[in-house]
Amino acid sequence: IDVHSNTQTSRLPDFQTLDNMASKRKVYVVGVGMTKFEKPGRRDDFDYPDMAKEAGTKALQDAGISYTQVEQAVVGYCYGDSTCGQRALYQLGMTGIPIYNVNNACATGSSALFLAKQLVEGRMADCVMALGFDKMERGSLSAKYTDRISPMDKHVETLNDTYGISPAPITPQLFAAAGREHMEKFGSSVDHFAKIAMKNHRHSANNPYSQFRDVYTLDEIKNSRMVHEPLTKLQCCPTSDGSAAAILCSEDYVRKHNLERQAVEIVAMEMRTDFPSTFNEKSGMKLVGYDMTKTAAENIYRKTGYSPRDVDVIELHDCFSANELITYEALGLCPQGKAGEFIDRGDNTYGGKYVVNPSGGLISKGHPLGATGLAQCCELCWQLRGQAEKRQVPGAKVALQHNLGLGGAVVIAIYRMGFPNAVKGSNGPRSYVSMSHTGATETLKAEAVFEEIGKNIAKEGPALVKKVKGSYLFKIKGSDGNVQEWLLDLKSGEGSLKKGAGLKGDCIITMKDSDFMDLVLGKIGAQKAFFSGKLKISGNTALAMKLQNVIPKTPKAKL
Fold first, then answer.
1. Cis ω on the peptide bond leading into residue 230 (within 30° of 0)?
2. Nearest 10 degrees: CA dihedral of 305, 307, 309, 312?
3. Three-state SS for 10?
4. Distance in angstroms (rounded) separating the CA atoms of residues 175 and 362
5. Which residues, listed in sequence order, are joined to residue 509 by a DSSP beta bridge?
C-alpha cells in the first residue's frame, strides 16, 4: 500500500522477504474452540481451569487429535499468578511438555498465538496449542500494584499534557482523546462512533458465544450513560470471563493426519510495540497505538503481497468505538480522514466492502483480555471454513486480525484456507465440533470416555488398527435431545478419533448419554442393553464384537 496516496495496489513481496519466508515452515490452524464469554462472576462453575478445559477440549476435538499429541503450549492471561497456564492445561493432561505463560495487556491472546506460530515455523515443534483466558473483575480496569511505577505512566503523563485528565477510568479517557482528535482533524462525528457500536451489537445477535446479544438503535447507543465524551457506555467493551484456544501445526503434520480440509494457513503475523511518536507528537491517536498498527499493517502487506482490498472479513480490536474508527485508516481500509464516509457507506458491514467484527467485536462479544486474540482467531477460522452460520460472510477467502494492547503491543495476522483444493474436492466443508457452537450445547458425560479413547489411540493406535480393521460411528444423545457424533477410525495407519456431524462409519452405535455411561462403567451389560433397546447397532454389526478392544479400561472414578 502506498501510504502517501489514497490508492491501494497489490504487489509481490521483495526478494529478501521471499528468501526469509522460504526458510520458515508454513503454519496452519487445524483446531479452534472457545467458551461463551460471560459477565464476571455470573457462573459459579467458571474458574479459569474450568473455562480453559472447555476451550482446550473443543480445540482438540475440532482438530481430531488428543492432548498427548501437543508438543508445546503457550498460555496467555493477565489476571492470575505466575503458573496459571500449567494449572489450566493440567486439566487436559500432564504430559510434561514445555508450557509458556504470556502477559501482554489486551494483546495477550494474539501474543500467545504469535509465539506458538514461531515454535512451529522455526521447527521447534510440529503441533502446538495456544490458549488464552481471563477471570476478571466487574467494572473498569484498574492498576493492581500501587507500590511501583505503572507501565502506563508515560501514557497518562502524555494524556494529561494534551487533553487533561478527569476523575474517570483512565482507559476510556485515552481512547476518547483519540476519538476527539479525529473529530477535530477530520470532521468525524459522534454519530460515526455510535454507528460502529450499533453495528457490532447487531452482529453479536447472531453469535452464541457473545456476552451481549441485544440490538440497539442509534439513539439508544448515543443516549446511554456517558463514560467519557464522546464515548457512551454502549460504545465501550465490558470486562469478561472466558477462554479460547487454537491448535497450530506444520504442513507435514497436516498431511500426515489428513487435516487438509480444515487447515487455515496463517499467511503472516506482525507484532509491533510503541515508537517515539507515541509520546513525542502529543497525539491522542498515536498515544493509543495508531503508528504501531499502521506500521504492522504496512509490513504485513509488503511481506505477503496482499493489499487491504484483498481482505474479505476482519476481526478488529474495538475496545472502544473510537479505536475501531481510527483503525480503519491505520489498516488502510480507507484513506486517512475518510473513516466517517467509510462508515456512512456501510463499508464495514454485510453488503459493504468489508465485514468488520462479524462476531460482535469486543464491544458486544466481550473482552477477557487473555482470550480476545484467540477468540478472533476462532471467528476468522470459522468464517474461512464457511462455518459461521448466521454470521457467515459470503465467499470469505482472506481474513485479517488486529489485536491491540496499551503499553503497548499490536498483533496483525492474515489468514486463508491452506488447501482450498481439498475443500473443493469434498462434499463441502466438514462439520466440526465448533460448527454447532457447543458453548450453548450440553457437555456430555461421554466426553470423558472419548478423551480416554483418544489417549489410547495416541499410545496404541497401530495395535488397535491391527485388531479391529474397521470404523465406529458413535451417536450419543444428550438430555437436551441433541445428538453428538464421534468417528473412531481404526481401518489403517495409526487410527484417529474425530468429533463432528454427518460422519460415516462401518459400525454405528446409537445410545443415550446416560445409558452409554452405564455400559462403560459396567452398570449394565452389553447384551441386556441391546435387548432392552438402550443399545442400537447398525451397519457392520460384526465389528460390535470387537468393541471390548476400544472401550477404555479406565478406573471408574476417573470417568
1. yes
2. 70
3. coil
4. 14
5. 474, 537
Does the annotation mark 182 as catalytic?
no
| Catalytic residue flag (residue 367) | yes
Eight-state DSSP code of residue 210: -
Q: Which of 201, 367, 402, 437 is catalytic?
A: 367
Interhelix angle 321-330/190-204, rounded to 10 degrees, is 100
Instruction: Kindly report, residue by residue over 438-496, the tens digit of the pLDDT.
Output: 334 567 888 888 888 887 887 788 888 888 989 999 999 988 788 899 999 898 878 88
Q: For residue 459, what is the DSSP state?
A: H
Exposure b/e, 291-315, CB count within 10 A at least 16 = b: bbbbbbbbbbbbbbbbbbebbbbbb
CB-count exposure of residue 106 (10 Å: 0-12, 13-18, 19+): buried
452: left (phi over 0), alpha (psi -120 to 50) or beta: alpha
User: Reduced to 3 states, what is the DSSP secondary structure of residue 100?
Assistant: strand
Nearest to 32 by CA among 263, 239, 261, 205: 263
Q: What is the mean pLDDT of residues 104-123?
A: 97
Give the residue among 455, 460, 448 at the shortest CA–CA distance from 513.
448
| % of the chain residues with pLDDT over 70 | 90
Q: Residue 6's pLDDT band (boundaries 50, 70, 90)?
A: very low
Name 194's bridge partners.
none
Give tens-digit pLDDT for 23-82. 689 999 999 999 999 998 888 888 999 999 999 999 999 999 999 999 999 999 999 999
- Running DSSP on this structure, what letter comes out for residue 274? -
Max CA separation in the chain (angstroms): 80
Paired residues of 248 in beta bridges? 29, 128
Nearest to 137 by CA among 238, 51, 225: 238
| Res 553: pLDDT | 65
Cα–Cα distance, 240 to 394 (Å, whole number)? 30
What is the identity of the amino acid at 182? Answer: H
Active-site residue (options: 106, 377, 381, 507): 106
Helix residue spans in 331-436 (DSSP H): 339-344, 361-365, 369-385, 420-424
Contacts for 19 with CB less than 8 Å, ≥ 6 apart? none
Report the relative pairing of strands 242-250 and 27-34 from DSSP bridges: antiparallel
How far is the C-alpha of 62 from the C-alpha of 60, rounded, in Å?
A: 5
Label residue 20 by pLDDT band (50, 70, 90).
low
Q: Give the residue carrying C-alpha cell 503508528.
A: 291
CA distance 468 to 495: 10
pTM of the model: 0.75
